[in-house]
DNA sequence: GGCTCATATGTGTATTTACGCATATTAAGG
DNA sequence: CCTTAATATGCGTAAATACACATATGAGCC
């Protein structure tokens, strides 16, 4: 039997994370992170964003549970809990590249 | 050699899709879709959203290449190109459930 | 051609939000 | 204790956007 809705994802909570990830600078910050924690200043340097802005985005990422920040002296070191999220994002990017060929205003050909 | 940034995803384009997906009603619409095309009225009925709003979101989804809409008489039938995106979203939801235990304002314990 | 149904589009609005500036907090060093 | 460095926070603002209302387009029917 064929199901019209093959996959079901919980909308609540998922959209929250998607919204967080949908901000380019936030994604850049996350993307530049690994399992090895780095101080905020490193993220500022790497991204070229203002201190205020990086702190702003890091707070959002941290409160969402996407990154962790451990305190070392006056520094706060941020890193990922695990790389699972980046893997999923890589999958999404891959799917995008294969299935959504540079969307034009009219959308892909109807067929 | 250890890499601090284990995965690299293209930020541009990816954030666009993430932003589109981050809207709850849009995700609901997409989530309610399958490979079998249904008229807009069905989506309106299923979601309980206004006609204007459904049309608004469908346009965004269509222009992004995430859904296709084929015309049949006065009706326009919408459906997915493939279920890959929903699978990825299911993976994300799964990862979320396993790794982000109901984020509180302070974020998960620092470890 | 006029009528009606299905869907799209134009306009206005209220909410969200990313960002910078200024300032507060917290830690190390003299 | 005062200074300096690292990070966070309060406030104001400009831009994005989800939504409703009204209207336009387009197909089928008499």
Description:
The structure is a homodimer of 111-residue chains. Chain A has 5 helices and 3 strands, in the order ααβααββα. Chain A is globular. By secondary structure, chain A is α+β, with helices and mostly antiparallel strands. The relative contact order of chain A is 0.13. Helices cover 48% and strands 13% of the residues of chain A. Chain A has a single domain (21-99), classed as Winged helix-like DNA-binding domain superfamily/Winged helix DNA-binding domain (Arc Repressor Mutant, subunit A), CATH 1.10.10.10. Chain A starts with 13 loop residues before the first helix and ends in a 12-residue tail after the last helix. The longest helix of chain A has 16 residues, at 84-99. Chain A has a 3-stranded antiparallel sheet. Mean pLDDT of chain A is 87; it is low at 1-6 and 103-107. In chain A, a hairpin with a 2-residue loop joins strand 2 and strand 3 (75-80). Chains A and B meet through helix 1, helix 2, strand 2 and helix 5 of A and helix 1, helix 2, strand 2 and helix 5 of B. Chain A binds a DNA duplex (30 and 30 nucleotides) through residues 23, 25, 39-41, 49-59, 71, 73-76.
Q: Give a quick account of the main beta sheet of chain A: strands, pairing sense, barrel closure.
A: 3 strands, antiparallel
Helix/strand structural class of chain A: alpha+beta
CATH class of chain A: Mainly Alpha
Number of domains of chain A: 1
| CATH topology type of chain A | Arc Repressor Mutant, subunit A
Describe the oligomeric state of these chains in a short phrase: homodimer
């Amino acid at each position: 039997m064929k199901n019209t809705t093959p996959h079901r994802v919980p909308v609540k909570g998922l959209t929250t994370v998607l919204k967080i990830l949908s901000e380019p600078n936030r994604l850049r910050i996350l993307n530049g992170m690994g399992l090895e924690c780095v101080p905020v200043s490193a993220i500022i340097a790497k991204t070229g964003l203002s201190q205020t802005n990086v702190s702003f985005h890091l707070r959002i990422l941290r409160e969402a549970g996407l990154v962790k920040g451990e305190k070392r002296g006056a520094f706060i070191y941020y890193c990922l809990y695990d790389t699972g999220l980046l893997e999923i994002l890589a999958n999404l990017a891959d799917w995008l590249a294969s299935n959504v060929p540079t969307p034009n205003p009219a959308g892909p050909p109807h067929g």
